Amino acid sequence: MATSMRGLTQFIADIRGARVKELEEKRINKEMANIRKKFKDGNLDGYQKKKYVAKIVFTYILGYKVDVGHMEAVNLISSPKYSEKQIGYLAVTLLMHENSDFLRLVVNSIRKDLDSNSEVDNCLALHAIANVGGSEMAEALSEDVHRLLISPTSQSFVKKKAALTLLRLYRKHPEVIPAAEWALRIVSIMDDQDLGVVICVTSLVMALAQDHLDAFAVCYTKAVDRLHRLVIGHEYSATYAYYKVPSPWLQVKLLRLLQYYPPTEDPTISSILHQVLQTIMNNCGEPTRNVQHNNAQHAVLFEAIGLAIHLDTNSPLVGTAAVLLARFISSKETNVRYLGLDTMAHLAARAESLDSIKIHQNTIILSLRDKDISVRRRALDLLYSMCDVDNSEIIVGELLRYLRVADYALREEMVLKIAILTEKYANSYKWYVDMILQLISTAGEHVGDEVWFRVVQIVTNTEDLQEYAAKAVFEHLKAPSTHESLVKVGGYILGEYGHLIANEPGYSPLEQFQLLHSKSQFCVAATRALLLSTYIKWVNVFPEIKPQLLNIFERYRHVLDAELQQRACEFYALASRPDDDEFLQNICEEMPPFPPRVSALLGSLNRKHGDTGDKRTWIHGGKEANLDREITKRKTLMVDTSGSDNTASGPAVGGQDIMNALAGLTISPSPNAPSSTPLLEAPSNQPRLTTGASVDRWFDKLTYAAEGVLYEDVQIQVGIKSRYQSHIGQLAVYLGNKVDAPLTSFTATVHVSDPEALSVSFAKIPPSTISSRSQTQQLLHVECKKVFTTPPILTVSFLAGSHQTISIRLPIVLTKFFEHVKLGQSDFFERWKLIGGEREAQSIFSVVSGHRLNVLEEIDPNPNNLVAAGVLHMSVEGKVGCLLRLEPNREAKLCRLTVRSTSGDVATEVQKLVQKPLMVSQVP
User: Fold this and answer.
1) What would the 3-class secondary structure string for 522-590 be?
2) How far apart, in whole angstroms, are the C-alpha atoms of residue 293 and residue 100?
3) Has 878 been labeled as part of a binding site?
């Protein structure tokens, strides 16, 4: 640029050559006057506009105010030449703020560049949006940025910039980004081959998922799969190996993303995640001489430990982590000590037992005197989190001793934490009062009002503590210098309960008055107003010092402060009334107990720890402090994060590998395959079902058949082969790609509406790509725990030109878990009568089909009737018998079906399933 614009080069040289500020300003003013003249005359070509705008940009960078060139910069953005467009975008991003009126003029030009086939134009536009995008620009262009991100024709570096641009827009204006609608499409890019794209998209997903957990739940499986491929499979290019650590930035982001969701109940995903975490911890040996390698390895390790703590604090992984952390908090490197203390605070905030942390209590206390303030702050957080009934006196004592020499930046937070710990773990009220008064005396101006408010509340509500509190505060007020917060506490407590100690030597009413009033001259008006209230209380209970108190009221009647003057006048009038007046006694009665309320100290402490870019997954303060937060998060995410709501998997049927038993299943194309399928609205907590006549017919057939087609269209075919025994079932799901291009970003999840009744889980994470004209198979483990009524839903999503999502019901119904039962005529009707009509469900219909119920021959006296029996197996509720009787009516061409069971729910569900016209059969 410098060689092509000699005028700009000379201008820069003149500025640099100016020996004094005045000469520089003179040269700039001369140039700005010339530029204004040129712009006013017009008739400038693109090169001249570019040159003059570049001079304006340079002047702005030097710190001078610029009020010219904005319109010319807007015009340059529309130029077809890259050099002119570049200067235009540079000027716009530097000279304009997000609310500038000029930005409205460039929206169409930016959209044109976003739609351009030139990647360079795309990137210039994305930079401008990210740097100055206001709410109007975000609303107008967010769709275009999203389109660039998901477009299969976009280059990798364009996708990276588009993802980061969306992230910037979401953080500034989250309301204009339809995150839930874009969730599946954005998450699918986490399967991209370019790890740079994956890193940028993961950053975007992290921000979006924090506010939309349900919508982005599928990212859990993607994150685990990518971690497994990185850490165990070593699937990455050498470009992304940072000092032999595979893409540590991506690993850290994925490990952090998983902490936003509750631990998965899917045994397959849980097992893979355990392997990943175990491998990361095993790879962390002794530190090497290469600092960069150590930093990258430690970054991944500490995030992995945080995830292990989040998943299960009682797991062997956390035991291994506790040993590693003990080594890290004693490290010679400041960064390692910092991270070790912070991660150990995480463990203390979530762990059931603190024994593994208490072993290192002395080391942690010594960290309070570390040379680095960040380490000292983390040590304070850790001591706060690890404090309990057993070590509270030691920790509070150490914190009070350190408070005298602590940094001023730490003192206010320390005061809050000491006050909270003292109240929470006080073994006696007297110890509480001693510690709090010592805290107030030591901390001075760092004590907030909420601290002494809390002291007053507790003393007022605890009758046995009032006399001791009065004595204790009196002794603390004897110190040569006392802070105003202590005077406030003393004024309130002595005013309310000073009479309880007035008869003891050294605590007479006069001594109380003289001591308290001697401190008032150093206090502000608000504190002296409180002391006046104390004096009027004393007028009622200490008549012997009434003259001295009246004298104080008389003096304060003439002060300039309106509040003090009003109080003094009112109190003087009250105190001057006759001695037998009951009016004063009623006004000056003791304060009643405060109503139960939540301590304001915790709220104040939480405000100190304001949210940063990423929300914390835990808070300081021990397991109890994190319990409510965890419950709230679990309520927010009702669906299992893996998308399959799984809790168990069954063993192989009959000791055989089901994959061998089901091998060889091939599904021929169906002539009735639907080319397009409408979507029906489903409840918000369930996937939207893909339906159609063929889809429903295939599902109905598979509720009694063991194998067949479940879904098919022009792109994909889904087939099923199943096997059941007792309460355990196994399904082989065959996924066939029917097109000549691979299906990428493939995701398969299972949603179960009632996970306590039915468990369905994948044996392994489905592949992310299905090759063209090929078929892959996935094994599903099924377990029936209780009676269930809603089949699970299989959701498949993939990229095939555009993003496709299919949600179909799996043919897993209650009758799949029945076992044949052989009964004689007498046994059948004996049980039939024993069950009675209370568990009976009847229906009239025209066709009938059996569902794993054993049809019993020659049982019913009417040879035209059919009877059947079976036993339903459930792992939780055990076995439930079921009897069925079918009575055909030839004249009406209808059948009467009666189902009886010891469980009404079973009878109703069996009746509903059997009456469906799954297989047309003639009425005998």
Assistant:
1) CCCHHHHHHHHHHHHHHHHHCHHHHHHHHHHHHHHCCCCCHHHHHHHHHHHHHHCCCCCCHHHHHHCCC
2) 46
3) no
Structure tokens at 467: 């006399």
**Residue 663's domain is classified under what CATH number?**
2.60.40.1230
Is position 244 annotated in a ligand binding site?
no
CB proximity list for 791: less than 8 A, separation 6 or greater: 809, 810, 811, 812, 813
> Within a domain: residue 880?
yes
Binding residue per annotation — 51? yes
Confidence of residue 375 (pLDDT cuts 50, 70, 90): very high
Most confident listed range (113-127, 669-683, 860-874):
113-127
d(CA 606, CA 604): 6
On whether 7 is known to bind a ligand per the annotation, the reply is yes
Residues 428 and 571 in one domain: yes
Q: What are the tens digits of pLDDT across the range 380-402?
A: 999 999 998 888 999 999 999 99
Task: Assess contact for 269 and 217: CB atoms under 8 A.
Answer: no
Q: Give helix 82-95 / helix 70-77 axis angle, nearest 10°.
A: 140
Q: Read off the pLDDT band of 126 (50, 70, 90).
A: very high
Give per-residue pLDDT as tens, 770-781. Answer: 999 999 999 999
CATH of the domain at 486: 1.25.10
SS3 735: strand
Q: Domain ends where: 796, 812, 828?
A: 812
Domain endpoint, select from 569, 587, 605: 587
Structural domain includes residue 799: yes
Beta bridge partners of 735: 718, 776
pLDDT per residue as tens digits for the range 470-523: 999 999 998 888 888 889 899 999 988 998 998 888 889 899 989 888 888 878
Same-domain status, 719 and 785: yes
Please indicate, yes or no, whether residues 881 and 794 belong to a single structural domain of this protein.
no
Same domain for 729 and 844?
no
540/402 same-domain check = yes
545 and 434 in one domain? Answer: yes
Q: Is 55 assigned a ligand-binding role in the annotation?
A: yes
Residues 775, 834: one domain? Answer: no
Instruction: Report pLDDT for 605.
Output: 67
Does 54 appear as a known binding residue? yes
Query: How confident is the model over 670-715, as pLDDT tens digits?
Result: 434 444 333 333 334 456 787 777 888 899 888 888 899 999 999 9
Are 795 and 888 in the same domain?
A: no
The pTM assigned to this predicted structure is: 0.79
Range of the domain at 467: 387-587
At 781, which helix (H) or strand (E)?
Answer: strand 775-784
**Does 47 carry a binding-site annotation?**
yes
Report yes or no on 19 lying in a domain: no
Query: Across the chain, how many H-helices and E-strands are there?
Result: 37, 16
- Is there a domain that residue 531 lies in? yes
Domain count, the chain: 3
Residue 734, H or E segment: strand 728-737
**Is residue 892 left, alpha or beta, with left meaning phi > 0 and alpha meaning psi from -120 to 50?**
alpha
Mean pLDDT of 373-382: 92
